[in-house]
Design brief:
The protein has a five-stranded mixed beta barrel. The chain has a three-stranded antiparallel β-sheet with strand order 2-1-3, with helices on one face. The chain is built from two helices and eight strands, in the order αββββββαββ. The protein is globular and about 60 Å long. The chain has one domain. With 122 residues, the protein is mainly β. The longest helix is centred in the N-terminal third of the chain and has 8 residues. Helices cover 10% and strands 37% of the residues. The site of zinc ion has 7 residues, from loops.
Length: 122
């Protein structure tokens, strides 16, 4: 029996989520505002809870309040409320040290994911 390892490269498009994903790579919180009811979803919803699929993209401040947090084998995670968003978001926390301090802000990560860390005020 022969084992062969094949490298596979994927080039997946983010589609309608492109503004959100690009925002994550740049450390920006890009949310979706529903054109019908004004609900601000972050992460963005394709179809709002009111049923409308029309909306616009807005950039939030990136500040968030940690509602609750947990630690796991893969790091620290939190349920956070981003300023200006109407829902809660699960995020990775950069380090334990940053959790006790505020404000918390969205930071860029690679691969793109939601990461909160201590705001750089320098
Ligand atoms: Zn709506």
């Amino acid at each position: 029996m022969t084992t062969v390892h094949l490298p596979l490269e994927y080039d997946l498009k983010a589609g309608w989520l492109s503004p959100f994903v690009e925002g994550l790579t740049q450390g920006r919180a890009v949310a979706r505002v529903c054109a019908a009811c004004g609900r601000v979803s972050f992460p963005p919803l394709r179809t709002c809870t009111c049923g409308s699929a029309e909306g616009e993209w807005v950039i939030l401040s990136g500040r968030a309040t940690v509602i609750t947090r947990t630690s796991g084998l893969d790091g620290d995670f939190a349920l956070a409320q981003f300023d200006g968003a109407d829902g809660l978001t699960t995020v990775a926390l950069q380090s334990t040290a940053t959790v006790a301090q505020s404000p918390l802000v969205l930071q860029a990560s690679d691969p793109p994911r939601l990461v909160l860390g201590l705001e750089d005020t320098a």
